[in-house]
Design brief:
The complex is a heterodimer of chains A (404) and B (516).
Chain A lengths: L1 E8 L3 H12 L4 E4 L16 H11 L7 E7 L1 E5 L5 E5 L5 E4 L1 H12 L2 E3 L2 E8 L4 E7 L4 E11 L6 H6 L3 H4 L3 E12 L6 E5 L7 E7 L2 E9 L4 H16 L2 E5 L4 E5 L3 H4 L5 E2 L2 E3 L14 H21 L3 H18 L3 H6 L7 H6 L3 H15 L8 H14 L9
Helix pairs in contact in A: 1-3, 1-8, 2-8, 8-9
Chain B lengths: L1 H6 L29 H10 L8 H4 L16 E4 L3 H14 L3 E4 L15 E4 L6 E5 L4 E5 L4 H9 L3 E3 L10 H7 L6 H4 L6 E7 L5 E5 L4 H7 L8 E11 L3 E8 L2 H14 L4 E8 L2 E8 L2 H10 L9 H13 L5 H18 L5 E2 L2 E2 L2 H12 L9 E4 L1 H18 L3 E9 L20 E9 L8 H17 L15 H5 L1 H14 L12
Parallel strand pairs in B: 1-3, 2-3
Antiparallel strand pairs in B: 4-5, 5-9, 6-9, 7-8, 7-9, 10-12, 10-14, 11-12, 11-16, 13-14, 15-17, 16-17
The chains are: A alpha/beta (404), B alpha+beta (516).
Chain lengths: 404, 516
């Protein structure tokens, strides 16, 4: 059995960030990825400026091929049922529109880690001082790797997480997000912005932006509803209300499951023993539904924690949980109403944009947001968020007791 | 001009103004992957240069004082002689193996961390070679720590002129980056005290240089971030030893305190000046003197102009302020605790006689390690001219307040020597500074709370961004953050030095990725 320092499952941005820290520190690191690289990945591709900076500092200048057209996004525009729209520029300047297929592959290559692609993670067994990871190359035999640590950076439906907590995904609400691509006839939406709708009829997460000459119409809703019906409804709404005239969607639509929720109520999952969970698998998601910057930073923290644990011969979970607290604050603050009102936790200034509106519009926007939030009533998060907000105010931090 | 094309910033495909204020540079370089390592080791072994490759030997160099960058060298060479280092550099050039030089390892951005390649540990060369008592010059090997040098000099009742407060830094490393002391406002930085150096160039020649001999190399080596050669021996100006007469003045806000510091330096009335905060509402201005006469002159003429309070006066003022504000009692408790812990260590009985401090090297160095820093020495800083200093301090203070409940600011002036202008060219001394440059370090206090490297890095970035906005630079003890050097110095200066570097170090192996 081959023996390595760390096995990372998944070849996304979180994996690249973790691998970068581990390889820099001289640790033998193997990335196990289910698909053949470079692989397709569904994503809006709009990275936050914080994530942009991380990419530049750690992986170098972005090559052109890792970007879609338009290459940059200036900020976000919120649309409300009362037909008020608010555009907000990112504090840090424009941010890249990543082509995930190439961006992820580029970051993984830059990290310098060894990659075993087209190889599925099958399971893990933890022993005293190592983890045995079993995996299989497509069409090949099952093989085992002996690693000191295993990092699961394998997304919202993380197989590594399932190997630790088989019931976890049944305990949290799962959402479906899907996007379709349309040839544009006429689109008045500014292509320099990411557009988001606070509209309860459209769904839990509705967005649109331009990509490579086409317009994306994206919808997100609770698992169990029909993608095509919902999409059609949204496209029709865009046409009627915003004058967005699009040709029928092309065939290359795509969708995936999302674990939206843990960031709101501080219910992250960070692993057990020598197995760390990182990236979106933990539940990190920004308020605009952007998971990449959290993935990059949490991935790096997972990598750092392994290096620290080996250096100091301390339990890795303890170190990881201590280090990840800053990223938890950063992400959960974005959902914390008190922080939103007084502390600017986002990378664009919502309170300022709101204050710039006429008073009547301000009232309409707040009313629309309230009716949009009622869509989430069934998950019973309100009281938990209020509790967390008070906790943050009084203790200056979020409790670690809820973490798995 | 092919060489420089490669080095210019790549065109940004995202947008011309993406990431406002942030230069597009990779600060965490990729690990060197070990090409030709075996041949390199063999070549060194043939010349009897010992290279240690065991994990136990390389692992102790995993990180630096900053603790934000971690990297394992492929092998470690402990410096023994200039000849050995010359052989190492010749082989490194031949096989294109990166060499990272480390003295005390007190860098904060990973400049002394080897991401693969060879780590050269200079602490093997740590002997004082000669003390010229009449000419007041010491010749020492460059891997020596300042506290060790001070100890040797004290036997002859002599002292170094200025050294970093953190005295487990090496002489060679300090000369490469500057070195700021509380008397720098009077004498300049530590690098200004260098008379001549023995240097091993990146191509492995042993050269003696000074302002008279090989002056161009001397200019590049001093404050050159280790890019143009390895300092193996140094001759430094020294002075007769004197104990310190210390005085503290207390302020409730930053601006008057900083203004008083500027006034004191301009008046030449003090031998040592500096600001150290406990909180941004409890600030200490430290002044000290080398002789009773200087102290008496200050007391008679300048003291009355200071707006600070004495210890008791300030204590009463603070108490009066806190008593009506119960929500700030936590701050009051913090100040009391800090006073109880810190003050005895800054005036320890063992080192005080008749109100004078003896052995400031020991007192300061101990206090630095005990009360500041932690596993991560995170000390981003801003260096400005006199005019921008108050603004830089106040804006940096606002960033600190956003990130940490407790932190310390340390402000000090650096006298600029006209005759050394050429030395400063690549340094982070702001080009628009006249007479003095001013530096402020921003140092978080962790109080047992763990912060991720990422969080600390974000904090540092935000401080540096203030510098970018103020169009100033960073006087970094441990070198300048690579990503900011072009913003601080401009493309023209960086390109010029990069070309010199490429001539001096064709394989670009010595301390690579530190600034270029």
């Amino acid at each position: 059995m081959r023996s390595v320092d760390v096995v990372i499952v998944g070849a996304s941005l979180a994996a690249a960030a973790a691998a970068k820290r581990l390889v820099d520190a001289g640790l033998e690191t193997v990335i196990v990825e289910k698909q053949l690289l470079p692989r397709h990945k569904i994503c809006s591709g709009i990275l936050s400026p914080r994530g942009h900076r991380f990419l530049l500092e750690n992986f170098g200048a972005l090559p052109r091929k890792v970007l879609h057209e338009p290459t940059a996004c200036r900020g976000v525009t919120f649309h409300f049922p009362s037909m008020v729209s608010m555009s907000m520029d990112f504090f840090g300047g424009t941010t890249p529109h990543l082509h995930r297929k190439h961006a992820d592959h580029w970051a993984i290559e830059q990290s310098g880690a060894e990659v075993m692609d087209d190889t599925s993670f099958l399971g893990q067994v933890q022993c005293d001082d190592h983890v045995v990871v079993s995996a299989r190359k497509r069409g090949g035999e099952t093989f085992e790797l002996k690693a000191r640590y295993l990092i699961g950076a394998d997304g919202p439906v993380s197989p590594v997480l399932r190997s630790l907590y088989p019931d976890y995904h049944k305990q949290i609400p799962m959402f479906f997000v899907g996007q379709k691509f349309h040839e544009i006839i006429d689109c008045p939406l500014d292509e320099a912005y990411f557009h988001f709708w606070f509209h309860p009829d459209l769904g839990h997460y509705t967005w649109s932006h331009a990509r490579d000459g086409r317009q994306i119409v994206g919808v997100g809703y609770k698992v169990g509803q029909k993608f095509h019906d919902r999409h059609l409804y949204v496209a029709k709404y865009f046409e009627e209300k915003h004058g967005v005239r699009l040709k029928p969607a092309d065939d290359d639509h795509e969708g995936c499951s999302e674990n939206f929720g843990p960031s709101l109520i501080n219910r992250y999952v960070f692993g057990k023993g020598r197995v760390l969970i990182t990236g979106q698998a933990t539940g990190f998601l920004n308020m605009i539904g952007e998971g990449m910057s959290c993935a990059l930073h949490s991935g790096a923290i997972a990598g750092e924690s392994v290096v620290d644990a080996m250096l100091r011969n301390q339990p890795v979970q303890e170190i990881y949980r201590r280090n990840i607290a800053s990223e938890v604050r950063r992400t959960t603050d974005q959902w914390n109403p008190l922080q939103i009102a007084f502390a600017r936790p986002h990378e664009a200034d919502f309170p300022k944009a709101l204050a710039a509106l006429p008073m009547a519009d301000r009232i309409r926007v707040m009313r629309d947001i309230w009716s949009f939030l009622k869509l989430y009533k069934e998950f019973k998060w309100g009281r938990q968020i209020a509790g967390l907000s008070m906790q943050r105010l009084l203790r200056g931090d979020y409790s670690r007791k809820n973490w798995l | 001009m092919n060489v420089s094309v490669e080095s210019t910033l790549p065109a940004d495909p995202v947008a011309a103004d993406a990431l406002i204020g942030i230069p597009r540079q990779q600060t965490n370089a990729s690990r060197w992957q070990g090409e030709q390592w075996a041949d390199f080791v063999q070549a060194l072994q043939q010349q009897d240069v010992e290279i240690r490759q065991q994990c136990a030997d390389t692992g102790i160099y995993l990180t630096d004082a900053g603790g934000l960058a971690h990297g394992m060298p492929h092998g470690v060479v402990v410096a023994a002689s200039a000849g050995q280092i010359a052989a190492l550099m010749q082989a490194a050039q031949r096989f294109a193996v990166p060499v990272t030089v480390r003295g005390g390892g007190l860098t904060t951005e990973g400049e002394s961390v080897a991401f693969g390649g060879v780590l050269l540990d200079m602490t093997g060369m740590s002997r004082v070679l000669h003390v010229d008592k009449s000419g007041l010059i010491v010749r020492t090997q460059a891997g020596i720590f300042w506290h060790h040098l001070a100890e040797v000099l004290r036997r002859d009742d002599l002292d170094y002129i200025s050294a970093p407060l953190n005295l487990s830094s090496s002489v060679g490393g300090t000369l490469g980056v500057g070195g700021i002391d509380v008397n720098s406002a009077r004498y300049g930085c530590s690098a200004d005290q260098a008379v001549s150096l023995q240097v091993v160039t990146p191509t492995g020649e042993i050269v003696e240089c000074s302002d008279r001999e090989n002056s161009e190399l001397f200019e590049r080596i001093i404050l050159g971030y280790g890019q143009f050669g390895i300092i193996t021996e140094a001759s430094l100006h020294i002075r007769p030893y004197t104990p310190l007469r210390m005085h503290y003045f207390y302020y409730a806000s930053l601006q008057p305190c900083v203004e008083d510091l500027l006034m004191l330096d301009a008046s030449h009335a003090c031998d040592y000046t500096g600001i150290l905060t406990m909180m941004d509402t409890a600030i200490t201005l430290l002044v000290a003197f080398d002789s009773d006469q200087r102290e008496a002159e200050f007391m008679a003429t300048v003291k009355a102009q200071l707006r600070g309070y004495g210890e008791w006066g300030f204590g009463l003022r603070l108490a009066a302020g806190f008593i009506w504000r119960p929500w700030r009692w936590r701050e009051a408790l913090f100040l009391l605790r800090r006073k109880r812990e810190l003050f005895p260590d800054l005036q320890p009985d063992m080192h005080m006689h008749d109100g004078k401090m003896y052995d400031r090297t020991v007192v300061f160095s101990r206090a630095v390690w005990k009360h500041w820093g932690d596993r991560h020495m995170v000390i981003p800083d801003l260096a400005t001219n006199r005019d921008k200093f108050v603004e830089a301090v106040e804006r940096g203070n606002a960033v600190c307040r956003k990130y940490f409940p407790c932190y310390t600011l340390y402000c000090v002036g650096i006298r600029l020597r006209d005759e050394h202008k050429a030395h400063y060219e690549l340094s982070s001394i702001p080009p628009d500074a006249e007479g003095w440059a001013y530096g402020c370090e921003f140092e978080p206090m962790y109080n047992g709370v763990a912060y991720s490297r990422d969080y600390l890095q974000s904090f540092k970035n935000e401080i540096y961004d203030v510098g970018v906005e103020l169009e100033t630079s960073y006087y970094r003890f441990g070198g300048m953050m690579k990503g900011y050097i072009r913003r601080a110095l401009g493309d023209a200066v960086v390109e010029k030095h990069l070309q010199l570097k490429q001539q001096a170090d064709p394989a670009m192996v010595l301390n690579r990725d530190v600034i270029f």
